[in-house]
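Predicting structure from sequence has reshaped protein science. With that in mind, we have picked out one protein's residues alongside their backbone shape tokens:
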Amino acid sequence: MYELNILAILKKQNKSKYWLFNQLNNIKPISYTNFNNIVCNKTKSIKYSTLTNLCNILNCTPNDLFTKTNNNTK
């Protein structure tokens, strides 16, 4: 199972979840509920365009965004 590290990256960059939501929403409108599900790892899929936008905004690669976990219960 893989999880997104968005909150850890934001913390490392001293940015807030709200800041990221605004940045992402400026590129392509997204509901806060969908955004929050992505950030909190409560989604089962993510669009490539959203992944690309997150990488561009956070100045990282997809490898930076994901962490492999041993949790297979989701």
Observations:
- The longest helix spans residues 17-27.
- Helices lie at 6-12, 17-27, 32-39, 48-58, 62-65.
- The beta strands are 2-4, 66-68.
- The mean pLDDT is 92.
